[in-house]
Amino acid sequence: MKKFFAFLAVLALPFGIAAPARAGTASPAAATPPYHVVRPGETIKKIADFYGITPKQLRAWNAIVKPNQPSVDGVLNLAKPLSPLTGWRSWIENVTPGQVNWDPAKNCPVPPEDLRKVWVTYIDFYGVAHPGSIVVNKAIAARTQSVFLSLYRMRFRIQGMSPMTVNAPYITDYGTVTAGYSCRLIAGTKTVSQHAYGLAIDVNPVQNPMYRGTYVESGTEVTFMTRWAYRRGMMHAAGAVRAFTTNGFHWGGRWHTLKDYMHFSPTNK
Ligand SMILES: [Zn+2]
């Protein structure tokens, strides 16, 4: 559902100017620390032994307090992180019509006053924490906060959230953004998408593709269609998906004809 993120590109600029500048925003490509994606059955001890480090180091580099174990789909630093994780913060703002590209002629089902911008702390692909925002229906604003708190505690990584200009200026493809509200139809249909109600969230669209039978969106990386793999940003039922399902969301990865691994909605649509 990438093309629909185009409008977010327009929104990102004013958000970026308003948002506080943060450390660690330079392109991290030169120094991506080594990491490990947690698979089912793994423990701190198992992972530490495998890499020849101590459990104490692994806990310290990932701010994991004893006796907590890592979560499936979590990404652990295997060296001292570039910058230590910040505390998790979240707040909710109203949105202006301009911020959501409001156009009365489009007959969007939910007015801007029923939408909220939810700010959360998230960990990017390089292990750096940022404030990111997502626009959702006010009815799910609180549970959206809970979801992102769970993802943060899992040490799950998100490639990018708005404002991209601040958090991930090295990303130019807005189809990679984790986002919610978008006034649009479901691709290839005349049905209004749950995103148009602010009742759906897409997470790491590149790593969690959508496809219907043999139809695959252009640009989809085949490697991410192999869902048994555990790679940075991928979601699995035993892992990051639980952050959503324990907060009343359903997962598009459980659908049959259409597989939408990035998509979560409380309406299961
Ligand atoms: Zn979606």
From TrEMBL:
It comes from the Bacteria. Residues 1-23 form the signal peptide. Residues 34-78 form the LysM domain. The keyword Chaperone does not apply. GO terms for molecular function: peptidase activity. Pfam families: LysM (PF01476), Peptidase_M15_4 (PF13539). Keywords: Signal. This is LysM domain-containing protein. It comes from Winogradskya consettensis. The lineage of its organism: Bacteria, Bacillati, Actinomycetota, Actinomycetes, Micromonosporales.
